[in-house]
Amino acid sequence: MQRLNKAIKRVAALGVGVAMLGATITGAVAQAASLDLANLPEPFVSKAGVYSEDTALVVGSRADVSDTLAVGDVSAKLQYLAKTAVSTSGTVTVSGGVTEDVPAGLGIANSTSVALDFQLDKTDINSFFDGAISFQNEDIETHDELVLQKASPSVQTSLTSSEDDYESNVFLETTKGAIKYYYVFDDAVNVTKSTSSDPLEVKFLGKTLKVTSVDSSQTKFTATVGTEYFMKVGDVVTVSGKKVTLQNVGSSGSIQVDVDGKIATVDADASKTVNSIEIKNDDTFYATSKAERSAALIIGEDAEDTFADGDEYVGQDKNDPDWTWKLGNLGAKSSTTVSSGSSDPTGPFIGIQNEFVKDDDTDNPPGIGECYKLPNNYAEVCMDSARTIHLSAPGDERFVIPANIPNLISNSTVNANDVKTSDLWLETEGADAGGSGILVFYRDVNSNPNIVYLGNLSLFNMTLAGNGLSYTGGKPVAGLVASSALFARMNYLKTKDSNIRFSLTPLRANTSKGLVVSARGDSSTELDPLSDDLVLNFSVSSGNFSALGLTAAKEEAGELAWSIAGGGGNNGTSSLPWTQLGAKDEDHRTKYGIIIRDPKSNGASDKVVLEIPGDQVQANVVVKGASTTVSGGGVTYIPAKITVNTRLDTEVSDPSQHNLILIGGPCADPLVERVAGLPKCGEWALGPGEALLQLAKNGDNVALLVAGTDAMDTRMAGKVFSNYEDYDLSGSSTKLAGSMNAPRVVK
User: Fold this and answer.
1) 529 and 500 in contact (C-beta within 8 Å)?
2) Tens digit of pLDDT for each residue in 22-55?
3) Which of 227, 474, 611, 642 could form a disulfide with 51 if both were Cys (CB 3.0 to 4.6 A apart)?
4) SS3 295
């Protein structure tokens, strides 16, 4: 096996949905285009049944118990609406970051063409900073930078790392100091000039860092490091689980704060620890009207402290930190130069480095899909994926990998019995093997790691007559499907055994592979074998899967084809009756009943989305006479497993981070008043027996108020939400009246 089983996510993918309810959704559920109740259940659940994980159901900490009953109605509706979404993916694409295929045994920043740069800045990671800061009445050009050693972190296997417990898996090992982050000064600067009145202020790891003094050693400074909050009098933020309220601002610049019931005064430009939370009074605005007063505060468990080179970074365990400070040359009036990942920069530098060592199985180094994370999640170094074909289906055990597959060279540990899974990955064996061998992986939820290597599906001995599928003519050679190598069968309700088979076949020697989805009826009378087949054509370049079709991220007619009766197994001429589907923008259905969703747009993302029925779809034909009656029929649904995020108002620090469903009015749920456009407690205008459903913008998200004048009225509003299809809801706000058992919309 020339290519080790590395990387198992996101590449050319076949998504398989079932029961005609599967839908391909990539990315988060977008905010509704307008605040209109007629669009429910969006944005909380999409029209395709995908639940937004950003949704939070919030009930007031002062609410009546009946409000919590309304939460039950709303959450039950969300669960009912959420349908299984097909998890699919296309060619590896990184937006705002960098990616590279790194061979096993090498550092990810090694000095070859198959490596990342050892210095990564804003040109590589677009969330990084690059610009000017003001210091000592000068504009100083600066940027932040992730720096890697060239030998570490490194991609390692059981053999390259001499770690038997890695088995067939791949991990990202690292040594101490292999990952560094620096704030780089592109212009000359003397950090020792920092004072409390004129600090050096930068965004370090995304948080405000204000250096107020530097020790004579030039490797130690005093600074504030915390989250900066701009608060008006009365505003509340939650920090480390405690509520911080700005109560007042004095004319002298002092402030009065309340930290979970502990009240204290903090002088101008001073810091004070109140109830274990440190508050730095950074700046204030005083006005005659108390409501117009405000302050800029830096709040954290350690808002201001003195830090030395080698000390634990803010928030780290003092005795066993993962990250420590890297400080030096702070008195040198010069710029910063980073020359390698192993040695310190020249000139003044402020940074951090990793202290952990992860070089064997007991250290739990990151595996596939896992990361090393910098503090504040500012950046991540991850082992993400290889170029694979991923087959995924909702539910459990949707595929069966048969025991003793004839073309499978087993790893001798798995292939003795049938394997059931809902995720399969196929990876070429690599350039040295011409891509002819296919490595097969599957997900086992009971294993750790849960991605298991099954074996090598050999295509070496398969005979290929002619040149395979022509992308201009779309005519595969005779016997294409019959000569394919079976590796899995569908396992859903009555669609099982040999009804839907998945196999691979060479198309153009080593430059193209066909993934064949072959349908068969329970008998040849219902559906002949080899008369209802789909072929997905994957290109291979340098021994790796490179695209669906000839070109990645582009729809092409010949990348997906369907056979008409007898086309797949007929031993006739090469001009077999195949229909090209890759450029069609309509949904299509095969003889067995498989729905092919929008081949054109999905093909542009290098994926094919199929919805496979739980049994062969057959039309029920009725010839009726005058007294004939017909009854029966039904639909099978597969619910999605979702986690409904329920919270008290006191547990939401930043409302704008969620699509909120607020249960109860502003007097019962104080969080309501923190969403602009929703009513205040003193402004509630409804009377007894009345309730409200109201949408409002909430930053980039949406808030929905489900509230009544009293708790029973709130339950009435919850009932209306749970049956929104039965009511004429429209606009951003709808008034309700009546009772819980007989609510009505008030026009």
Assistant:
1) no
2) 222 122 222 333 588 888 888 888 765 677 777 8
3) 642
4) strand
The per-residue b/e assignment along 662-671, b for 16 or more CB within 10 angstroms, e otherwise, is bbbbbbbbbb
Residue 449 lies in a domain: yes
Residue with the two structure tokens 């109860």:
664
Nearest in space to 560 (alpha carbons), one of 600, 595, 532: 600
582 and 696 both lie in a single domain: no
Range of the domain at 235: 227-301
Cis peptide before 41 (omega within 30 of 0): yes
| Contacting residues for 519 by C-beta, under 8 A, at least 6 apart | 499, 500, 527, 532, 533, 590, 591, 592, 594, 616
Tell me how many domains the chain contains.
Answer: 4
Residues 6+ apart with CB under 8 A from 159: none
**What is the longest distance spanned by two Cα atoms in the chain?**
103
For residue 716, with 0-12 CB atoms within 10 Å meaning exposed, 13-18 middle and 19 or more buried, which class applies? buried
In tens, the pLDDT along 479-523 reads 444 457 888 999 888 888 889 999 888 776 567 777 888 888 888
- The answer to whether 379 and 354 are in contact (CB under 8 A) is no
Whether residues 144 and 201 share a domain: the answer is yes
Q: Domain with 652 in it: what CATH number?
A: 3.30.379.10
- The pTM (predicted TM-score) of the whole model is 0.47
Token match 């990616």: residue? Answer: 99
In a domain, 170, yes or no: yes
Pairing relationship of beta strands 171-173 and 179-185 according to DSSP bridges? unpaired
Q: State the Cα–Cα distance between residues 426 and 313, nearest whole angstrom.
A: 42
Beta bridge partners of 58: 647, 662
Judgement on whether residues 250 and 326 belong to the same structural domain of the protein: no
Residue 598, domain member (yes or no):
no
Are 406 and 498 found together in one domain?
yes
Cα(545)–Cα(504) distance, rounded to whole angstroms?
Answer: 13
